[in-house]
Each structure stands twice: as structure tokens, then as C-alpha cells.
Amino acid sequence: xxxxxxxxADEAQNEADWKVGVDIGGTFIDFCALEAxxxxxxxxxxxxxxxxxxxxxxxxxxxxxxxxxxxxxxxxRFVHGTTVGINTIIQRKGAPLALFTNAGFEDVIELARLRxxxxxxxxxxxxxxxxxxxxxxxxxxxxxxxGSESRAPxxxxxxxxxxxxxxxxxxxxxxxxxHSWRNAAQEAKVKATITRFAPDVFVFSSAEVWPVIREYExxxxxxxxxxxxPRVSGYLTxxxxxxxxxxxxxxxxxxxxxxxxxxxxxxxxxxxxxLLSGTAxxxxxxxxxxxxxxEHKVLTLDIGGTSADFALIIxxxxxxxxxxxxxxxxxxxxSVSVSSIxxxxxxxxxxxxxxxxxxxxxxAGSTPGPACYGRGGERPTVTDAMVVCGWLGxxxxxxxxxxxxxxxxxxxxxxxxxxxxxxIEQTAQAILDITVSEMFVEVEKLASRAGVDLRDFTLMPxxxxxxxxxxxxxxxxxxxxxxxxxxxxxxxxxGGLVADLRGDFIRTIFSPLSGASLAGIREAFEALxxxxxxxxxxxxxxxxxxxxxxxxxxxxxxxxxxxxxxLPEWLADGNVAAIEQAFHLTHERLYDFHDPEGEIxxxxxxxxxxxxxxxxxxxxxDEVDAPAIPAxxxxxxxxxxxxxxxxHDRQALVPGSALHxxxxxxxxxxxxxxxxxxxxxxxxxxxxxxxFAE
Length: 694
Known about the structure:
Number of strands: 35
Radius of gyration: 26 Å
Low-confidence stretches: 1-13
């Protein structure tokens, strides 16, 4: 691989310090391995094995050892992102659960927030809850909003409910009572009774998962955690055993939805924290690459086999939020803000009953995959359309594991073209145009919500499919710059390597902002700080910790709050005016409005405990004036006609190399399609920078 520093076999054996990041997607598992002492980077893609999640991990480690001299016994850091949790929810293959809540509130998860997913659709419906109504049991109990007990839980009713839940096949029970954010004693008491009465059933209480105000959000987060618990816990246990069998000394770490890391032991318990681990680590990897390249405003585009994910990087940092969708359900814990759409390289193109061409959301996945993979797929996909147009299929894919069969791609797209009574190239182009237009709509929504002008941003495409379609999307969005990293296909795996330990903690305060309320905020902050430091210690982090404090605040009368950054010295000094000013400024920035005379209400205090990860860097190479020499020329259908364009090998491009579109750049993990009117050059970080003429 490029960037390697030569060393003897003995030196490698004695001095090697391998740090490995792994990310499992819908089609491929990606590896990014860094030998820290020499700076050598090795990367790899392996097809996933849905029937045996985790088996492909061992296959990949064996291939790294064979091809790159990787020694598992010299691995000091192993970070892993997985889609086991989110796929369990999307496919609805989680554990049968029961919900114990207050009598009279059994409809809490069905009522939710009384909102429809699409208010403008006459055919819209809400998803069925993960727990059916007959598995929800009301327990006579009541905690007041001030934390005092109005009625103690009826333990005889708890025992009857446990017996009924087990008889109906429940493997786990979620306990979620009113106002447990204020006082969790009733939930804890009921959980202890369930554990004593039915030790074979796992139990989670809402307050231990995420102790936040609003019963639906707290309940649904706990339900998601319990729903995936058996599969995630079983997967992680098998992972630890496999790594131990292969002599890996590093304790496995897991990427989290918040872009940080946690150990596998916590992952088995706090499963909900890793539901968006793959998409989050991709944004963290992209943020690191953006900072290295000096890019301050970036729109990321991560295209895999089944979906396209978008995120904004501002000031070199990922953006965070709550309420991200996990399948059809909102996730109410902090996570990297990512927008997704069901369009990827494996998305299947079809004609509906009205004769309209559609793309996705159904995907061919890794098995059987796109037709051109030659693995049994027969239906046309976005990847097949790229092959038919000539952008793809000129080299092996996925580090030599896949050879493109252009004949199979033409057959699959040809059958669709016959139904549409259109030439095959035009049909393939229509598939690509629809794909780009669907992504365009989703990106415009993201930009509108964030209030940004994408013309000021650089697009960073990654994933196996990002570079294939990224430049076309950027051109439609009016963006002037595209930055393709050296190894776009393994950016999510890189994100695991550069990520920090990060734990998020919350306390609900719910009081007016005043000098009198500062004592409660200080007390909550001190408790959260202790909890955060203890959490970092449990993760094996013994260095300095960074504590980041925010507060959810709103004007009295508003239904929802905004997150405001606080400085600890404001609390120490009792500086209410500074906190008020911070809220007003944040409200003005988000809504172009603030009320200096408005009464302010505190809702939640939040703390992020961060333990810095290893400081990694890739070598920079001086640019030279070296024209890019194409390997050969080939015919490509560019949307209007077939043109003869240059084909470049990414490995042969050096910093300073320049080329112009239309052109194709091939490499081990992806193919970069450069449209007409674009100029490209390689920078000193080996990124391929593309600019469009005004």
C-alpha cells in the first residue's frame, strides 16, 4: 500500500503496533489498519455474511495477515462498528418484549406524540409498535412529578403480570413509570421483583437507559435497547471469543451513535448507544480528514449498498442532535446528526404498476448483490447502471474480490429497457438521474433545517458508492468543490481509529432560570461529572478527561427546548446573566428571534465525558508539477452521447497531478466518476480535489 515505510521482517515482528478499525455495512465489511510506528496504512473490503455476522471479520483479519504482514498478536487497538442492532430493528427480528407501565397509561407507546410520519399523505400510517398492546401491562403505582410517592407499586400485580408476560412468550421486560426521571425508586423496586420472580427474563428500566423527562421518549428508548439486547449481546460475546481464539490481545471497543467509543462489556448492556455506530463513525472519520485538509465546511456523502447518508461538518466538527430515526422509530439519545435515504449501489430499479421507473428502497445487498457481481442477482441496480454507462467495470472491485461481469449488467438493465421501450444506455442513465434526484431532495431538506448555503461547502463522498455518484450530485446542488479521500471505501473504519471515548449523561432539572436554581444545576453538574469520570475509568481511560456541559432551555410556554453550551465558571460564579445571554444568542441563531424579556426555563442538564483517543497522522507529500497520464481511454455514455474518456489509476496519481473531466479514476475500493466541466488535482494528503468551472 502507498505510504509504507520499508522495514525487515524481524523489525516488523519486534516493533509492530497495529491499530485496526472495522465497519460492517450492508454489503461489505471494511478494514483500516494502521501500523503506528511506521505510519503504514493497509485497507481491505470483504463481502458480508448475513447468515453468520462476524465470520467475515475473521476472514478479513486473515487476508490482512496474508497480504500486508499484519500480526493479530501485535494489535493494540481494535475498534468495531456494526449494523447488527439497527438491522434487527429494521427487519423486526428483535426479542419479544413486555412493557410494565402505570395502570391507566397502557397506551403510551401507541399514542406516542400523535403525529403522522407524513402529514401530507392520505395513505400515511404510523408503524406498528415493537411491543403489541396485549404485551403491555398496567401496574397500580404512581410517582408524583415532584418525586414523592402517591401510591406504592402493587407487587402482587407485578407477579401476575410477569407470569402473563412469560406465558405469552416474552424474553424481556421493560419497566417505564411516570416521573422516573425525578425519582427512579419505583422502577428499581419493580425491576428487582421481576428479577427475583423470573431470573430467566432480562429487564431494563427506562431511568437506567436514559433518565429524561417525557414518558414516550424515555419508554421508546428503553424499548429499543431491550429489543436488540439478545442479538447484540450474543454477537459481541461471539466476537470476543473469536478475537481471543485468534490471539488478539486488544480489548474490543465499539463505535457509538454519538461518534465516540465504549467497550464491549458496556455494549452488551447499553445496546441503544450503538444503533447508529456505522453512520456516526463515517462522519467522525470524514471530520478528521476534513481537519487534516483544512476544509471547514463539508457535506459528507456516504453511499453503501443499501443507503446514502448525509451529514454536515462545520468548523471541522461533526454536528450532533437527538431524534434520529432508527428504521421507523426515533432515537432520543445524543447522536451524530445524519440524514439517510434508501438509495445505494445495490438499490434495485423497477417499473411500477403505472409504468414509472423507480429506484430503491429495496436492495440486492451482498447476497445475491447487483447482477454484475455474478453472484446470482438478476434485477438491475444502480451499480449495474453505472456499468452499462461505462463508468464502472474496468478493474476488479473490493481489493480484487469482485470482477465485474458487464454482460450480466447489460442483460439486467436491458430487460428493464425493453419494458420501458427505451435504449439501454438511456435507461441506465435514467436510473442514475433518479438516484441523484432522490439524494438531491434529501440534501436540500438537510440544508434547509440547518440554515446553510451548500454553495459554501465542499462535498466529501466516501463509501464504496460515494465517489461514483458524488460529483454528479455536487454539480446538481451547485457546489463548487468535491474532495475524495485517498481511501473513500474505508472512511467509516478510519473513524473508529481516530474516535475518542465519549459518554453522554443527563439529568432533568425542570425549573425556572434564576439565582436560586443555580444550586440545583451545580449539584447536577457535579453528579454528572463524577458519573462521567467513573465511566471513563471503567473504559480503561486513566488520562485527563474533557467535560463538556450543555443545558436544554426554553422560554416559558414553549413546548420544546434548545441545547445551549454552558461554561462551568458561569455556575461557579453564579453568573445567571451569562447563561441567559447564551440562551438568547442560541435562540436567535436558530430561529432569527429572541425575547430579552422572556422568562427562561431549564429542562435538562447534559454532560459529555470525553477521553481523547490516539493522536494519529498520515504523512504529507510535497506536490510536484506532474501531469496525470491516463492508463488508457474508454467509451462512456455521459448522458447525451458516448464519449471517449481517460481512465486513470489512482495509485499512479501523485500530489500535484492534474486531470480534467469527463474521466474515470479506478482504485482498490471504489471508482471515481468525474463529469465533464470538472478539473481535478491531487493534494499533499493524496485527496483528489475536484472543482467545477463557474
